[in-house]
Structures are given as structure tokens and as C-alpha cells.
Design goal:
Blueprint (H helix, E strand, L loop, with lengths): L10 H4 L12 H5 L25 H4 L20 H15 L3 H10 L8 E2 L13 E4 L2 E4 L9 H4 L1 E2 L2 H12 L6 H8 L17 E5 L3 E10 L2 E8 L4 E7 L6 H12 L2
Antiparallel strand pairs: 1-4, 2-3, 5-6, 6-7, 7-8
Amino acid sequence: EEGKLDLNTSLYYYVPDFPKKNYDFTVKQIGGHIAGIRHYDYTNNENELFNIKKMSIVEGLDIFKNDSLLFKPGSKYSYSTYGWNLLSVVVQNAAKTDFNEYMNSTVFSPLKMKNTTIGLVDEEMPNRTAFYIKENEKIILGPKVNNEYKAAGGGFISTTEDLILFGNEIILPTIISKETLDEFVKSQETDSGEKTNYGIGFGATTVKNETLRYSHSGGGIGATAFLLVYPEKELVITILTNLSQVKIIELVGKLENVFID
């Protein structure tokens, strides 16, 4: 909206010191998970998913920045939290403002999302829940992990009430234009013309009775989340739980059977 970011511009325009790959790729491709940037290495949990080291979003790029792309950008869809880590640096550089401060001033504060902020690993935060994991079918307290460096991909903590305020913005935009919103919720396509059912940060599909749904799920150590927006129904559903590996898709289906005609 401020004219500081062109989605179809190369990543290297905004982050020129990111290591060069075999192919160039755009901000929009990163946002749609078709740029080829890898996701977590689940075989290396000690250093990635269970990371405890405090890092800035720029320092967090060190985890994956030297790895090769998984494929030619545009040719496939492959979900990447690290891609969104990279996008937070894009926003920070384009806005010339700390990413977290920018999010608060341009998104959270205008939408009155007063309980949405970065989850700090090394500080006590009032009213923050404990986080639990499953171990051998038992539910136990989860280990402390640092998600600050990947804020855009899963480092914020929030409430269901705040997420409803965010979802309402997707139905009736007030801080962005309808044209911009349409760009974010429109499914991208691969080079072969295959729809990915994912725009920029939003899954975009139809569900029961061809009802349009914009959504995103999230999972981390000790938490599972889902945001569902049904613009034609003017309906928002949010689910947050302080437990890993919850079968949340089953709950979504049950809720849709109740609320979608």
C-alpha cells in the first residue's frame, strides 16, 4: 500500500547479501512457496525445530541461506517456513524499520490486536500459557524453544479473539485495499499452469457446498493453530491449543459441518 514493495521483484533487490542461487526468484514466489527454499530439516531437530539459541531474523537466515534451492522456482509447490523468515527480512529492509515494530504499528495496533506479540524465549510474559507435547502417548511439558528469529513463519503468540480481528480484516479490509487483498488470497500457479491452492500466506480453496475458504494452519513445539476465513459467509473460525500434534483437521471438519450450510 505504501509503494515500498513490489511482489514481482527479485528477492535480491531487497536482500542483496542473500547468497546467490542457480536461479533468481521473486518475493511473490517465496510467499507462495514455489521458490524452492527448503523447510525444516526434521532429521536435525536439535539444531532446528528444537532450537533454543536466541537469534534475530537476519541471524536466522544462517540456518538455510547456504543451501541449494530444492527445484527451479515456479516449477513446484513446497511449503517453507524459512521462506517466510526470509520475507520478514524483505519487509524489514523495504520498510527500513524493525520487522516486529513494523507489524505492530501497521497491522496489530490498527486492528486492535492487543494480545499479539513476539514470543520471547528468555523472558517471562504475563498470561502466556505453558506449552505441552506428547511423548509415548503421555502429555508432558514441552522444552523451551526460540521462535523469535522466524516471526513471520511462526514466532508470534496471540489469542483466538485477536485472530478473529485479523480474520475480519480479510473479509472487510480496512488497512489494505481490496485489490491488495485479492492478490494475497488468489491461488498461485506453477509454470505448468497447475493451481497451488495457495496465495501469499493464505490457503485458498472451496469446501462444503463450494464455500470459499481462506485459511492457514500452524504447528510448533507445544502449539497447534488454525485460522479459517469464509468471506461469503462473513465467518471467521480460530483454533489455538497449547499442545503439539493435535488432530486439528478433524475438528475443522466438524465445525464446518455446524457452521457452513
